[in-house]
Amino acid sequence: MLISLAKLILRAARRFRLRLAGAHLEAPRLLAADIGCRRGVGAMGSGQIDIGAGAWIEQGVVLHAYGGKIRIGRDVFLGPHTVIYGHGGVEIGDECLIAMHCRILSSNHSLGSFGTPVRTLPDIMKPTRIGRDVWLGAGVTVLGGVTIGDGCVVGAGAVVTKDLAPGAIAFGVPAVAKNYREGSPPHPI
């Protein structure tokens, strides 16, 4: 009984810490230790982080909106040490499986002439959308401006640089659709 009470207190403390950082939570299933959460302030004001009901967020996950928006749907699993930067807006649909060490971006650096430090130039906002029931394997990187359709599977270590059609099974650097899940919408191959 004492252990159950301690777990409830720990869970409440983690929820409180994320809410204090500005995240909006709808009854998550698990919030592990060391979740980094920052809304930040951008040109449009304070950032926004919304986490849907039933979310399972593992240890070391980083959710930094940098003044943009991060929206995580219902029953989403975020594996250990996943990093999501929401400058330009990130939306993750319901029932997604995001494995460990994935990176999801929503901006890019602009480039000036040689001799102008890249760090001094403004970011280019590139909204990123991950559909419903998507599985990103371990270590996948999703670059800003990409849309991954519903039901896609992206193999471990892939770098997604272009949109993927619903039901695509993609892998590689850059990720290329090599097949489609049975029953997926018609697609080019």
Q: Keyphrases for this structure?
A:
globular, mainly beta, 1 helix, 24 strands, 189 residues, 6-stranded parallel sheet
- The low-confidence parts are none
Distance between the amino and carboxyl termini: 57 Å
- C-alpha Rg (nearest Å): 17 Å
- What percentage of amino acids are in beta strands? 25-35%
Please write the string of helix (H) and strand (E) elements: HEEEEEEEEEEEEEEEEEEEEEEEE
Structural class by secondary-structure content = mainly beta
Mean pLDDT over the full residue set:
91
Helix content: 10-25%
Number of strands: 24
Describe the strand arrangement of the main beta sheet, using strand numbers.
Answer: 2-7-10-13-18-21-23-24
Give the overall silhouette: globular
Number of discrete helical segments? 1
Described by strand count, sense and barrel closure, the largest sheet is:
8 strands, mixed
Brief digest:
The protein has 189 residues and is mainly beta.
Structure, explained:
There is one protein chain. 10% of the residues lie in helices and 34% in strands. It has 189 residues and is mainly β. It is globular.
SSE topology sketch:
Layout: H1 2-20, E1 23-25, E2 30-31, E3 36-38, E4 41-42, E5 45-46, E6 48-51, E7 56-57, E8 62-64, E9 69-72, E10 77-78, E11 83-85, E12 90-92, E13 97-98, E14 103-104, E15 107-109, E16 123-125, E17 128-130, E18 135-136, E19 141-142, E20 147-148, E21 153-154, E22 159-160, E23 168-171, E24 176-180
Parallel strand pairs: 1-6, 2-7, 3-8, 6-9, 7-10, 8-11, 9-12, 10-13, 11-14, 12-17, 13-18, 14-19, 17-20, 18-21, 19-22, 21-23
Antiparallel strand pairs: 4-5, 15-16, 23-24
